């Protein structure tokens, strides 16, 4: 089942890449922005509870879809780009087993535990 879920997440990542090709931005910007949502890990400097909230906000595909929808409605290509990049990043994260965080530990995600104890 885990493999099927990872394949599904990879398909969603490919969908985001396909959406990006419809935008008029460079692939260099795609590469630069693909990992930008990980800057939200800085929220963990305020503790695990605050860190989880901030991290989850920038890794939630609902926010990504909302940004895309608002961008389309308002004709704001930069907002569509932000939504596509959030969606792409979140999907790729989940391919590698990184999920939304619980407030008790960075390693505790909705997909299970990550790190040494998971090996």
Describe the structure.
This protein is mainly alpha-helical and 119 residues long. The chain has one domain (2-118). 60% of the residues lie in helices and 8% in strands. The chain has 5 helices and 3 strands; from the N terminus they run αααααβββ. The chain has helices at 2-21, 27-34, 48-57, 61-74, 77-95; strands at 101-102, 105-109, 112-113. Strands 1-2-3 form a 3-stranded antiparallel β-sheet, with helices on one face. α1 (2-21) packs antiparallel against α5 and α4 packs antiparallel against α5 (77-95). The longest helix has 20 residues, at 2-21. The chain is globular and about 45 Å long. The protein starts with a helix and ends in a 6-residue tail after the last strand. The relative contact order is 0.16. The mean pLDDT is 94.
């Amino acid at each position: 089942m885990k493999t099927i879920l990872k394949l599904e997440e990879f398909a969603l990542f490919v969908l985001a890449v396909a959406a990006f090709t419809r935008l008029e931005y460079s692939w260099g910007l795609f590469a630069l922005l693909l990992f930008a949502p990980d800057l939200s890990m800085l929220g963990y400097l305020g503790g695990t509870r605050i860190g989880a909230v901030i991290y989850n906000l920038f890794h939630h595909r609902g926010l990504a879809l909302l940004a895309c929808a608002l961008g389309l409605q308002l004709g704001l290509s930069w907002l569509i780009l932000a939504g596509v990049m959030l969606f792409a990043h979140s999907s790729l994260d989940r391919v590698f087993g990184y999920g939304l965080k619980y407030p008790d530990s960075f390693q505790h995600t909705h997909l299970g535990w990550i790190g040494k104890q998971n090996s």
